Amino acid sequence: MTVTASAALFDRASAVTPGGVNSPVRAFAAVGGTPRFITSAQGAWLTDADGNRLVDLVCSWGPMLLGHAHPEVVAAVTAAVARGTSYGTPTVPEVELAEELVARTPIERVRFVSSGTEATMSAIRLARGVTGRDMVVKFAGCYHGHVDALLAAAGSGLATLGVPGTPGVPASATGETIVLRYGDRAAVAQAFAEHGPQIAALITEAAPGNMGVVPPEPGFNQFLADTCRAHGALFISDEVMTGFRASREGQWGLDGKQEGWTPDLITFGKVMGGGFPAAAFGGRADVMAHLAPEGPVYQAGTLAGNPIATTAGLATLRLADDSVYAGLNAAADTLTAAAIDALTAAGVPHRVQRSGTMFSIFFTAAPVRHFDDAQTQDVAAFGAFFHAMLDRGVHLPPSAFEAWFLSAAHDDEALQTVLDALPAAASAAAAAGGN
Ligand SMILES: *Cc1c(COP(=O)(O)O)cnc(C)c1O
Prior knowledge:
Layout: H1 5-16, E1 38-42, E2 45-48, E3 53-56, H2 71-82, H3 92-104, E4 109-113, H4 116-131, E5 135-139, H5 156-161, H6 171-174, E6 177-180, H7 185-195, E7 199-205, H8 220-230, E8 234-238, H9 256-259, E9 265-268, E10 279-283, H10 285-288, H11 307-319, H12 322-345, E11 351-355, E12 358-362, H13 371-374, H14 379-391, E13 394-395, H15 412-432
Parallel strand pairs: 3-13, 5-6, 5-7, 7-8, 8-9
Antiparallel strand pairs: 1-2, 2-3, 4-10, 9-10, 11-12
Helix pairs in contact: 2-11, 3-11, 7-8, 12-15, 14-15
């Protein structure tokens, strides 16, 4: 049997890196086989180490809103690199990106960090510092990065690998974390009735995407914001995935903006970094004023607001106008309709869920309202579907618990490649499923 270049590289990687990957979701643990090593990407297409061209439905797990190597982003980044890559001083691009974030969202002040994990970790620290309280409320299946206190019950990475929480996090770190079922208003009300005076913050994915896409019931986020306010806790909306992705103004543009409420703090990442390590947390000016050096809550970063990363993010957001989001919505319509047709024709139980331009296809028939529902999926059917798609040149997230990501570069040729692959993949799922 011939060994592919990707398989050979994966052997090399596994000899020097745990599991051969630098983030667990990249491994094919949930679907079998070895991950493809990607050597270049352009628009909607990846090229792997064996020269295969693949339509990318991962998009770096969300960031590549415009597609890969967008010429204007590449030009801006190339020019910025030539001016030096990091100074450890304030720079112009970080001010411009901060202004763009403040203009698009309800936040008044923003602090840049280098990953979504740092953003949520810092937002929680700030909430604790501001309120003088320790407890945090989160929902099962919502992933907020690998923050100790938030790894009490997390989403896709852990669910996919079947790890219950994780060793290495002391009980004291999660002992102040209350984990509730997503969407359960009664559970939220009860948690605040019992622990209200101790709760610093409630954090939720603005629209969960890390257990597959679970759009919040209308009014749910407003209910959370109201409940927090009534008890003097802060409402942290994690828009690391949804920010500048679900809509031009993120998930908030789909609910808070319409309903007239704002989170106290919002976290961002992924799209706002344009494919570089950049993330942020921001919110009310009076809350953010507690951060050092203005206030006493310490938070810092050597590469925070890095000029290359903020240049990439700024170029990406400036190009992400209404027509980009309209195009993403239309592409999502086309793809989900074709997937429904193919899976229905093959008799594979499935369910499409969507929030703005974000969507995922669950391999279960019943509505997925929370993490327990997501776990009713037929993962064997998904595994067969995934590999049949990959064999036909479509690179899906290697897990049934993920959003599928499109970009503005997913044109007719790219979408047609996906559409052409769907019927055979649906048949493969039917043959493997139901066991
Ligand atoms: C990806 C993600 C994070 C973590 O971001 P990293 O940059 O991977 O640390 C946090 N919250 C949500 C909702 C995410 O999707």
